[in-house]
Hints:
Strand order of the largest sheet of chain B: 1-2-4-3
Number of helices of chain B: 7
Number of domains of chain B: 2
Helix content of chain A: 55-70%
Number of strands of chain B: 4
Oligomer: heterodimer
Largest interface: A-B, 67 and 77 residues
Strand content of chain B: 5-15%
Radius of gyration of chain B: 36 Å
Distance between the termini of chain A: 119 Å
Strand order of the largest sheet of chain A: 1-2-4-3
Amino acid sequence: MSDSINLSLGRQVVKTEIKKSLLISVVLLSAVVLFTLILVGTNYIFTSRYDKLVADEAELQARIETQSAKKAKLLLLHERLSTASSIITARKNLNEKFAEVLAAAPDTLTVKSSAVAANLINMGFESSDLAALNEFLNALYSLEKDKSQITKVKVNSFGFNETVANYVMDVDFNF
Amino acid sequence: MNDSLLDFYYQKYKKYLLSAVIGIIAIGIVWQVAIPQVYSIMQVRTDSELKQAEIAKLEASLSALNSYNDANLDDNIKTATTALPASKEILAMYLAIVSASTKAEVTITTFATRIGTLYTRKGAKALDVDKKEPGDAAPALLMSLTIDATSTEEIQRFTDELHAVLPLAEVKTIDYSGTDAQYEISFYYNTVDTQTLSKQVNISALTRAEQELLEQMKVWNQQTVAPSAIPTNPPTPSP
């Protein structure tokens, strides 16, 4: 009798385990299906929004295309201004360097010749006043020390020219 | 032997077969449907963000286009192309040096330029067409000219004025001899690259810097003499 009771309980345990495992698998499947449906729904919403964005973009492009002539003009204007700006920024103002050299020269000095380029200015000075030339030479020392824009000063020649009856000096200024 | 073993396991676990099948279906759904959906959502979100950015740019482009009227735009382009012509503009260069000399009160005695190749058939080799010098932002046409100058002030004035006329020019060298000064001046031009321009989708309104540059160019343009100021006939020799 007791054996049969024990056997009966064993079958119930097994049946309960089967039911439990079946329940778990059904719940799992349901959860998976529900989760998947949520994902599909979300994907649909996002895709719909994306499709609307694509349509909006196409509409905007079409509206811009109706003004293609104006668009071409505006692009051309940008391109001209951009290149012009680069030119203005890059172009060297020789006057600035020329003025810097001239500012150091006393009034009694006459510029008889000059050759101005981007990195080098050669100048020929003339004066009847030796002290003025000396003063200028001293000023050149301080110019070089200041390192304003000038990187090197080289006096090519210094002397007295009988033809013009003046002291003459030829100087290179490197920038 | 194998069949009996299989049969043994089948008999032992057949009660769980349905649960196992349901579990496998669940895994299959996750693998085949749920995971691809997650990837798809992520991809669509990324694409949407990019598309929104593109739309914002297009809206800005449209707004920029609507903010200009054709007449104003034409006027601005005229100024900009006067500053930076699309080709070698000899007349514009001449007007520029005449304007600068008039304002600087100096006399131009000679001027010359080597125009070089104006056109080549597509694909033909032409080294001097639209060639940029190192350090230059655009190709340039080099002009040599001589002015009467007996002082450095005249040179400085003329040099300053050359930088305040259009087309944009740059004084490359000045050679002063005491009685005259020889100049080498680069006049910039830049061909319009229509292919590159046509590929551009987004347009922006002029920036403050661009507007200021345009205003500056208009001032410089006003300082440049009109073509009508140039005599159409050469001077008649006196008897």
